[in-house]
Design goal:
Layout: H1 2-10, H2 14-32, H3 37-52, H4 56-73, H5 79-94, H6 98-116, H7 121-144
Helix pairs in contact: 1-2, 2-3, 3-4, 4-5, 5-6, 6-7
Length: 145
């Protein structure tokens, strides 16, 4: 069902994706418990669906909850925790909280370098995101002048 929810999300069928994401999350909470990594992944999937719908406050709240639980359960430098941190940075960016987004993405990138190395594709992608965000901010400042 989670794969079908992801397919719906990729097709822009967000309401259907959301319904399945909630069903998967609720089922995993009942069977595995709220602290299980699979449950946390299903919560992160729902946060992603909310983000794709432009429901940033709901996405933010859920992503923070997942990230905080992952920090406690698997550690602050675990790859899944760092992915959540980067996802939260994107949610902040979507809300035009550019400074917070940039700082959080930079922190996630720095921690990822420690864990997976500087040449990993995720590090390169994070660097490209940060560069794009800097260009956007520079252009925005130029337009405001």
């Amino acid at each position: 069902m989670a794969n079908l929810a992801s397919t719906f999300n990729n097709q822009g069928r967000w309401k259907e994706a959301e319904e399945l994401d909630i069903q998967v999350m609720d089922t995993k909470k009942k069977i595995l418990g709220v602290k299980h990594p699979d449950t946390l992944s299903s919560m992160a999937n729902l946060a992603s669906t909310y983000n794709d719908q432009g429901r940033w406050k709901e996405a933010e709240e859920l992503e923070i909850q997942v990230m905080d639980m992952r920090k406690k359960i698997i550690g602050a430098e675990h790859p899944d925790t760092l992915i959540g941190m980067a996802n939260l940075a994107h949610i902040y960016w979507s809300q035009k909280r550019h400074g917070e987004a940039f700082n959080l993405m930079e922190l996630a990138r720095e921690l990822r370098i420690k864990v997976i190395g500087e040449n990993h594709p995720k590090i390169i992608a994070a660097k490209e995101t940060l560069e794009a965000w800097l260009i956007f901010q520079d252009n925005t400042l130029s337009e405001e002048r």
